[in-house]
Amino acid sequence: MSSLPADIVIWFLLAAGTVFAGVGVMGLLIFPDTRSRMFTAFRATAISLGAASLAVLTYASTLYTETGDSVYAGLIFRTLFLAVVLFAALWAMYGIVRERTGPGNRSGSAQVPAASADEENDNTIDQE
């Protein structure tokens, strides 16, 4: 077992992670449009994953300093690697959502790219 202050921090971080995961699920269910759903899910999930990762890191670092066992050093390394992978995936999802919903598009459908300058010139020539 880890020390009492470490246990309190670990339980607090796990509770915060659970609450923010629930907020993310509720955001997916109750918000009216795709953009607000995805941004809420992204932010709440990122906070939840961060809290859970910090809880594992607190646990591993506390037991590593108390016992000196290399198993806990491996747990720290693997948790940091997993956190980097998960946050990279969340950031990629965030970019995809921003690309598809766009700044002025509130309906949630994909944006239609603007016509190129050559196509606009062809249209004006045809009209003359």
Kindly describe this structure:
The protein is mainly alpha-helical and about 130 residues long. It has a single domain, classed as Orthogonal Bundle (Helix Hairpins), CATH 1.10.287. It is about 80% helix and about 0% strand. It has 4 helices and no strands. The chain has helices at about 5-30, 35-65, 70-100, 115-125. Helix 1 packs antiparallel against helix 2 (about 35-65) and helix 2 runs antiparallel to helix 3. About 10% of the residues are buried.
What is this structure, in a nutshell?
The chain has four helices and no strands. The chain has helices spanning 4-30, 34-67, 70-101, 117-127.
| Unreliably modeled segments | none
Tally of contiguous helical segments: 4
Distance between the amino and carboxyl termini: 83 Å
Mean pLDDT: 80
| Top CATH class | Mainly Alpha
What Rg do the Cα atoms give? 23 Å
Percent in strands: under 5%
Major β-sheet annotation: none
Helical content stands at: over 70%
Count the E strands: 0
CATH architecture: Orthogonal Bundle
CATH topology call: Helix Hairpins
Classification by helices and strands: mainly alpha
Summary tags:
128 residues, mainly alpha, Helix Hairpins
Task: Give the helices and strands, then pairings.
Elements: H1 4-30, H2 34-67, H3 70-101, H4 117-127
Helix pairs in contact: 1-2, 2-3
